[in-house]
């Protein structure tokens, strides 16, 4: 009877049913002889009922009674199959008790019971990863409550976590959690052990294998944030052990998971045979990967994280393709590095900072330790830069109706007051980046200033991690005074979200369909509820006239003439696009970042769905188009990266608000270079070619710098312009 009441409670969640179940069950237990073979099972059921009532009411008395009932089962023989589960339950309840009583002793008891559960669980048990995950959680709580490092029993805990990570049974997400705990503890207590490298290797393999039924882990931004520290810690451990190739491999495997997964789905769809019906007649004519792809993007844009067996079935039906969505092995990376310069990956961790230089022709990465730069400094510089941007109104604010013109292309109103005493902070940050970070890298790469007019500067593709992703590495230098020098004098800077992203573009030797070669332009000077940006009209008209004069296939649409759907159409029919408008970075749901039009918004997710195979250049003359979420710095989920994911080979973007009065001049100088010295037009002056876009932006920014000075305000006017891609 008690079991029947409990079953009904499970369906109705009616507490009166649970109360009756516990009352009837306790009476039945009292009447059961202690030596009766089912007595222990009934005690276990009563404990489960009491635990359920505690979860519903938070009554400490129920928790105490559940613990008492379960503790009576400790007399079971060690070979009993249920013992590991029972000890795991006790660990869970003692952690709950510690939350109520705020008693460290209950946490210690929870760790002890979880440890016992892990030790008793068979190696092939499906519950082992789950028990290991609970032990990891308890150890973290214990660690936070301790003033001293948890070293006693560290070897035993590492052993348990290792067993859970290597288990061939159980949920892969739980194996990942056990592996993360194994890597964390081993790295903390044995930082130079090869077992630590093994732990990170297993962890990153599990991260890279989160496809199919485990893919749900990627569809939740909380989970992505939990994973973000793993690749940088792994790369730091590899650098500590003089293994830069492994550091590169792990960074590529563990960063930009969303873009890697999207890339894999795009490529899977391209290589599938004609559309097949694998949904039992419900979706005839659709590629199975397209169904998975659309659902994945929908969840990333809605923060939905719910199981979908149907999707798993679809994904499982897709035949495997070697290398899709996976980082290239080192030998493959060597063969496809750009010949025009170096790729510099900067790994920033709590205890060290390292640069890894990848140069075509070199057999191994250049390992460049950066002892003068630290994570603490990067966070400090980022915070100081944010303050300077905020007080000058150079970061987007909340939406609001405003009926005035402005000089910035942000997504809302701005503050304009700042103290003149702050005028040197930006210059100081740029000097520190130069001295502590950039100049040591240039010296190791043997890149020097050669006073020869007309020489072509080498290129550097920067791939930063952590807080460095929000600092202007490309602008590092000493400004003002007689000893001025900056990275601008040494090299042409570009950024890439990952090495894999850049290599994919280097390997892509396909030509653009001549019928799609051309430039589409649109300006949106007065989007609803946004400040007016009148110079966007002059900017687009100037570029359009120049393109017509060069014989470039070009088309422009202004203001309310175009809808976001129209723009998507023109993105498919023109190889290059120039958007002069407002943009908004959504920090809560990054996939909902968008460009603002008179007739709606062009969302990042809508662009990514297009998979533009003939896309060349995107010039995003809008604000904060490369400003991602600081808590998701290793994912680089922003508009510029989204344009790369959609198929564009190169993107001009902005780190923060750009000034409306300067934007037309920058764009004009950019295309002037691209269509003259940059050979941006070919075939009789009719084809569009964006390959010289990095040089064109460098030229345009130098022209703007010539018109400005070296005050903080002047620096902040040109620094936001950045180049992504090849």
Describe this structure in words.
Strand 2 (353-359) and strand 3 (366-369) form a beta hairpin. Helix content is 48%, strand content 11%. The chain folds into three domains: 192-327, no CATH class; 335-500, no CATH class; 503-725, 3-Layer(aba) Sandwich (Rossmann fold). Residues 211-219, 272-286, 304-325, 397-407 and 411-421 have low confidence and may be disordered. It contains 27 helices and 18 strands. The protein is elongated, with a radius of gyration of 29 Å.
What features would you highlight for this structure?
27 helices; 18 strands; five-stranded mixed sheet; alpha/beta; 726 residues; Rossmann fold; elongated
Fold blueprint:
Elements: H1 2-12, H2 15-30, H3 39-57, H4 60-71, H5 83-101, H6 104-120, H7 128-145, H8 154-166, H9 172-189, H10 194-208, H11 221-227, H12 229-240, H13 244-254, H14 257-271, H15 288-302, H16 309-317, H17 330-335, E1 341-348, E2 353-359, E3 366-369, H18 375-391, H19 425-444, E4 459-464, E5 477-478, E6 485-486, E7 492-495, H20 499-507, E8 519-523, H21 535-550, E9 554-558, H22 564-573, E10 576-580, E11 582-584, E12 594-597, E13 600-603, H23 604-608, E14 617-621, H24 639-646, E15 650-654, H25 663-674, E16 681-682, E17 687-688, H26 693-707, H27 712-718, E18 721-725
Parallel strand pairs: 1-4, 4-7, 8-9, 8-10, 10-14, 14-15
Antiparallel strand pairs: 1-2, 2-3, 5-6, 11-12, 12-13, 15-18, 16-17
Helix pairs in contact: 1-2, 2-3, 3-4, 4-5, 5-6, 5-7, 6-7, 7-8, 7-9, 8-9, 9-10, 10-12, 12-13, 14-15, 15-16, 21-25, 25-26
């Amino acid at each position: 009877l008690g079991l029947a009441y409990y079953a009904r409670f499970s369906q109705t969640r009616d507490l009166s049913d649970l109360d009756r179940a516990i009352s009837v069950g306790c009476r039945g237990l009292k009447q059961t002889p202690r030596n009766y073979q089912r007595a222990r099972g009934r005690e276990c059921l009563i404990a489960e009922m009491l635990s359920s009532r505690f979860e519903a009411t938070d009554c400490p008395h129920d928790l105490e009674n559940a613990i008492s009932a379960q503790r009576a089962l400790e007399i079971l023989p060690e070979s009993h199959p249920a013992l590991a589960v029972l000890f795991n339950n006790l660990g869970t309840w003692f952690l709950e008790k510690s939350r109520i009583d705020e008693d460290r002793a209950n946490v210690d008891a929870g760790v002890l019971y979880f440890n016992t559960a892990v030790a008793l669980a068979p190696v092939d048990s499906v519950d082992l990863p789950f028990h290991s995950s609970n032990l990891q959680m308890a150890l973290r709580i214990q660690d936070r409550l301790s003033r001293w490092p948890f070293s006693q029993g560290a070897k035993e805990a590492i052993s348990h976590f290792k067993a859970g990570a290597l288990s061939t049974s159980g949920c892969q997400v739980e194996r990942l959690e056990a592996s993360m705990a194994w890597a964390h503890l081993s790295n903390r207590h044995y930082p130079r052990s090869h077992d630590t490298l093994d732990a990170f290797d297993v962890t990153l393999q599990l991260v890279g294998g989160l496809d199919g039924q485990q893919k749900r882990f990627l569809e939740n931004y909380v989970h992505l944030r939990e994973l973000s520290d793993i690749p940088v810690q792994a790369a730091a451990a590899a650098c500590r052990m003089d293994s830069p190739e492994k550091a590169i491999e792990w960074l590529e495997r563990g960063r930009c998971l969303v873009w890697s997964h999207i890339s894999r789905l795009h490529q899977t769809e391209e290589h599938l045979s004609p559309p097949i019906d694998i949904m039992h007649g419900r979706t005839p004519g659709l590629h199975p990967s397209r169904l998975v792809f659309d659902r994945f993007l929908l969840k990333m844009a809605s923060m939905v994280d719910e199981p979908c067996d149907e999707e798993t079935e679809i994904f499982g039906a897709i035949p495997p393709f070697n290398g899709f969505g996976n980082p290239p092995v080192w030998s493959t990376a060597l063969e496809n590095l750009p010949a025009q310069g170096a790729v510099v990956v900067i790994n920033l961790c709590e205890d060290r900072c390292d640069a890894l230089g990848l140069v075509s022709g070199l057999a191994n990465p250049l390992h460049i330790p950066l002892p003068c730069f630290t994570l603490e400094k990067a966070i400090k510089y980022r915070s100081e830069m944010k303050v300077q941007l905020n007080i000058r109104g150079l970061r987007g604010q909340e939406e609001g109706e405003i009926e005035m013109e402005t000089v910035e292309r942000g997504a809302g109103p701005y503050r304009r007051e700042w103290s003149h005493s702050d005028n040197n902070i930006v210059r100081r940050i740029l000097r520190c980046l130069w001295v502590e970070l950039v100049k040591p890298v240039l010296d190791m790469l043997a890149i020097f200033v050669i006073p020869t007019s007309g020489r072509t500067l080498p290129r550097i593709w920067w791939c930063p991690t952590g807080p460095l992703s929000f600092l202007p590495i490309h602008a590092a230098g000493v400004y003002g005074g007689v000893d001025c020098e900056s990275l601008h004098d040494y090299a042409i800077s570009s950024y890439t979200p990952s090495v894999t992203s850049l290599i994919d573009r280097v390997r892509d030797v396909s030509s653009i369909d001549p019928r799609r070669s051309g430039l589409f332009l649109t300006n949106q000077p007065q989007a609803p509820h946004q400040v007016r940006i009148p110079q966007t009209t002059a900017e687009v008209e100037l570029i359009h006239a120049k393109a017509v004069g060069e014989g470039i296939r070009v088309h422009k649409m202004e203001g309310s003439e175009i809808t976001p759907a129209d723009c998507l159409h023109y993105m498919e029919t023109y190889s290059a696009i120039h958007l002069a408008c407002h943009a908004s970075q959504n920090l809560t749901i990054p996939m909902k970042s968008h460009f603002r039009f008179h007739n709606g918004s062009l969302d990042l997710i809508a662009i990514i769905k297009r998979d533009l195979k003939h896309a060349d250049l995107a010039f995003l003359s809008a604000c904060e188009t490369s400003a991602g979420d600081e808590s998701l710095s290793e994912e680089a989920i922003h508009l510029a990266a989204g344009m790369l994911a959609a198929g564009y080979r190169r993107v001009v973007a902005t780190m923060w608000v750009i000034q409306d009065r300067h934007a037309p001049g920058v764009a004009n100088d950019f295309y002037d270079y691209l269509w003259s010295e940059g050979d941006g037009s070919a075939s009789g002056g009719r084809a569009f070619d964006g390959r010289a876009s990095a040089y064109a932006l460098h030229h345009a920014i130098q022209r703007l710098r010539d018109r400005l000075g070296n005050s903080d305000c002047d620096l902040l006017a040109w620094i936001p312009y950045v180049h992504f891609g090849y």
